């Protein structure tokens, strides 16, 4: 059975460990997952590469993509555009790969509205103190940036209940398997198997009395 992949959106507070979690999932199950690389108008940070973390584009290029319908969703976040390229996601889902989008809450809700079968997952540390200590532990950000991220987290928390599942990232080892299990179970939903169901019904018709 060649089943279409599952589209999964992962959001969560800055400092929740989403990046590490997703990298670990892809490293463990490279055949099953594909990570969508977003387009953004923000400048690359040191160490970031075009096409790996993001496709870094100008505002004009980004707006052209919007007009041409090349993005599944996009959002403005801290004065920059971020968006999910449509072609790559469609091709990977068609090839049976589960596609992961790591995007913020506004984009996540737009994707869910457009594609109701999308799995929405929210990653959080076990408590707020741990979030603050992880943000400080990076040692790369100014106090102002840390305070902004915490304020942002407080706003994002108001959207958590609109997600399908919560992932508490305490132990990476456990969290990555929970993530994998949630996506695997989404794949077994009746609504994700309509062509299989149709085929089974057709094959069984000959046994009708
Ligand atoms: P950063 O600038 O720190 O890489 O990302 C800022 C925020 O933008 C993060 O919350 C990240 O998840 C989100 N983001 C990254 N790509 C996309 C995208 O394609 N669409 C939306 N809506 N958000 C994105």
Can you describe this structure?
44% of the residues lie in helices and 21% in strands. Helix 1 (18-28) packs across helix 7 and helix 5 (128-137) packs antiparallel against helix 6. The chain is globular and about 75 Å long. The chain contains eight helices and nine strands. The model has no long low-confidence stretch (mean pLDDT 95). The two termini are 28 Å apart. The strands form two sheets. It has a five-stranded parallel sheet. A four-stranded mixed sheet has the order 4-3-6-5. The protein has helices spanning 18-28, 59-67, 86-94, 105-114, 128-137, 143-157, 172-187, 194-204, and strands at 7-12, 33-35, 38-40, 54-56, 71-77, 80-85, 98-102, 119-124, 165-168. With 209 residues, it is of the alpha/beta class. The structure holds guanosine-5'-monophosphate. Guanosine-5'-monophosphate (5GP) binds at residues 38, 42, 73-75, 77, 82-84, 102-104, 106-107.
SSE arrangement:
Blueprint: E1 7-12, H1 18-28, E2 33-35, E3 38-40, E4 54-56, H2 59-67, E5 71-77, E6 80-85, H3 86-94, E7 98-102, H4 105-114, E8 119-124, H5 128-137, H6 143-157, E9 165-168, H7 172-187, H8 194-204
Parallel strand pairs: 1-7, 1-8, 2-7, 3-4, 8-9
Antiparallel strand pairs: 3-6, 5-6
The protein binds guanosine-5'-monophosphate (5GP).
């Amino acid at each position: 059975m060649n089943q279409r992949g599952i589209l999964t959106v992962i959001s969560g507070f800055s400092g929740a460990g989403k990046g590490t979690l997703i990298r670990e999932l892809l490293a463990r199950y490279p055949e099953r997952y594909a990570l969508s690389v977003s387009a953004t108008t923000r400048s690359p940070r040191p160490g970031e590469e075009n096409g790996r973390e993001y496709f870094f584009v100008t505002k004009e290029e980004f707006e052209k993509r919007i007009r041409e319908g090349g993005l599944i969703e996009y959002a403005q976040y801290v004065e920059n555009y971020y968006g999910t390229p449509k072609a790559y996601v469609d091709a990977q889902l068609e090839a049976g790969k589960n596609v992961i989008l790591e995007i913020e809450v506004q984009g996540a809700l737009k994707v869910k509205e457009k594609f109701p079968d999308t799995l929405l997952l929210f990653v959080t540390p076990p408590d707020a103190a741990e979030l603050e200590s992880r943000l400080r532990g990076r040692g790369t950000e100014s106090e102002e940036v840390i305070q902004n991220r915490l304020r942002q987290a407080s706003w994002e928390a108001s959207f958590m209940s609109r997600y399908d599942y919560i992932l508490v990232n305490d132990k990476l080892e456990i969290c990555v398997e929970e993530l994998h299990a949630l996506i695997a179970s989404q794949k077994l939903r009746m609504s994700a198997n309509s062509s299989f169901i149709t085929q089974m019904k057709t094959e069984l018709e000959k046994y009708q009395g």
